[in-house]
TrEMBL record:
The keyword Transmembrane applies. It is a multi-pass membrane protein. This is Na+/H+ antiporter subunit D. It comes from Microbacterium allomyrinae. Belongs to the CPA3 antiporters (TC 2.A.63) subunit D family.
Length: 520
């Protein structure tokens, strides 16, 4: 198995791109597009699972020089435990959301997600995400970002409604600013060090003056923080994600910001390990947690509540990264995996709520516990998981982060632990408040409801839609994701062990000699 593993690595990117081309050619044949998309993502899931087993068992990453070019001239695809794990999780999420969108498209006639456009764009998005996770040099990482961003521009504006076009423009402008900063940082690094290969950069970075290192460091951090929606650079996210179709919102919330977090983890642990800005990251993490969750508490619309909790929980990942110990990095990776799955699941559940009730405003939606008990369960389980109630994975990840912070024991760590606990409690409050109003509340006087809405400045859920039938495949895919969130708890031990091994490896960067030995 280990002998054929290197040949499988390029397929993580080429298969989705090939699938996108076939789906585009078959634009008039919906079933063909669906089959191509499902088969492609299933194949990537199988390949990534094989690669994860190989790199974890062999305790050695897989590096593939595309086209046989020598380092540093060629493109190196690099698969270690971290990248393999994230590709596995991403392919699971992408496949589940795809099935959800297939059910929605079949029922609605693809009004919200035109199938001729959706499937090629979705597979290109997947290719960009996978390419970013296995990129061995900064420029290829930039290419991965641009591939997924170009596809996301199309997906976020599907349906061409006024609100989607407006928020899409904001999303595009913010993304372009981030890309320009990233490209400028790459240019400066190449001018200073003569390479964009991350292993070579890590070896040569110490040759630069500390001030120069700091400028390069902060430029990359700024670019990635915009993509990851780190406060105060998260202003664009709560308005951009809720307007997109439910499947698009779910996959964006689960994956796109995590690609930015992944880039921060890679650069902080590999390129700038000796030029840390951990104190800055700690305060940024605290602000991200608190400001994000306060925004969630103030909302009266489910998608916006989840968008703000998405921002706040990015703070936990920055918190763990700033602690900079193997245990903290391992806990961060575990929490990252947890958040990808749980946040996606919650957005899918809210998509079901929207179809069943015709709105996502917690002031309008009510009585769903009796009307739709299955949806109630599908929302409740990931909600309490995200809120950090034991014994779920959210509690395990947060406890591991707090334990790593307590081992360091500095005053700022204590402050961050308190901030993390407050954020967790407020997250639980915001999600359970929504649960109480949307699911438990009985039908009440319509005049009283309208008075509440008027007090908050109009319809908080935007323009309500008609109630629509929920196809079984939409419920099944959401239930499957809920089962995976539970599996993260049941199999927390083996998964957490893998994450700890990732943390140990990230703080012991690979040398150029080792990379050249690993290159196939």
């Amino acid at each position: 198995m280990s002998q054929i593993a290197p040949a499988l690595v390029p397929l993580l990117v080429t298969l989705p791109l090939l699938g996108a081309a076939i789906a585009l050619i078959a634009g008039r044949h919906r079933r063909t597009q669906v089959v191509v998309s499902v088969v492609t993502l299933t194949a990537v899931l199988a390949i990534s699972a094989i690669l994860l087993v190989v790199v974890d068992a062999g305790d050695q990453p897989i590096a593939v020089s595309v086209g046989g070019w020598p380092i540093p001239f060629g493109i190196v695809l690099y698969v270690d435990r971290l990248s393999a794990l994230l590709v596995v999780v991403s392919s699971i999420v992408l496949l589940a959301v795809l099935l959800f969108s297939v059910g929605q498209g079949a029922e609605d006639g693809d009004d919200d997600t035109p199938v001729s456009i959706f499937h090629p764009s979705y597979l290109i998005l997947a290719a960009g995400i996978f390419n970013a996770f296995i990129a061995g040099d900064l420029f290829n990482l930039y290419v991965g970002f641009e591939i997924l961003l170009v596809a996301s521009y199309v997906l976020i504006t599907l349906g061409s409604t006024e609100s989607r076009i407006r928020t899409g423009v904001v999303y595009i402008v913010v993304s372009l600013v981030s890309s320009i900063l990233f490209l400028a940082a790459i240019a400066m690094i190449y001018a200073a060090l003569g390479t964009v290969n991350m292993v070579q950069i890590s070896e040569r970075m110490s040759e630069l003056p500390q001030d120069t290192q700091l400028v390069l460091h902060l430029t990359l951090l700024l670019a990635f923080s915009i993509k990851a929606a780190v406060f105060p650079l998260s202003f664009w996210l709560p308005d951009s994600y809720p307007t997109a179709p439910a499947p698009v919102t779910a996959v964006f919330a689960g994956l796109l910001t995590k690609v930015g977090v992944y880039a921060i983890i890679r650069t902080e642990t590999e390129l700038f390990l000796d030029n840390d800005v951990n104190q800055l990251l700690m305060w940024v993490a605290l602000a991200t947690m608190i400001v994000g969750v306060l925004g969630a508490v103030a909302q009266a619309e489910l998608k916006r509540i989840l968008s703000f909790t998405l921002v706040s929980h990015i703070g936990y990942m920055i918190f763990g990264l700033a602690i900079a110990t193997p245990a903290a990095i391992g806990a961060t990776i575990y929490y990252m995996v947890h958040h990808i799955v749980v946040q996606t699941t919650l957005f899918l559940a809210v998509g079901l709520v929207e179809r069943r009730a015709g709105s996502t405003s917690i002031l309008r939606v009510k009585g769903l516990m009796k009307a739709a008990p299955v949806i109630a369960v599908l929302y409740f389980i990931p909600a309490i998981n995200l809120g950090g109630l034991p014994p779920f994975s959210g509690f395990i990840g947060k406890f591991a982060l707090f334990e790593a912070a307590a081992e360091v024991g500095t005053p700022i760590m204590m402050v961050l632990m308190v901030g993390g606990i407050v954020t967790s409690l407020l997250t639980l409050y915001a999600l359970m408040r929504a649960w109480n109003l949307a699911f438990w509340r009985e039908e009440d006087d319509s005049a009283e409801t309208e008075a509440r809405i008027s007090y908050l400045g109009g319809s908080p859920g935007g323009v309500d839609t008609e109630r629509r039938v929920i196809p079984k495949i939409m419920t099944a895919s959401t239930a499957g994701m809920v089962a995976i969130t539970v599996a993260l708890t049941i199999f927390a031990g083996p998964l957490y062990d893998v994450c700890i091994r990732i943390g140990d490896a990230l703080l012991q960067p690979v040398t150029l000699t080792q990379l050249e030995e690993d290159v196939q």
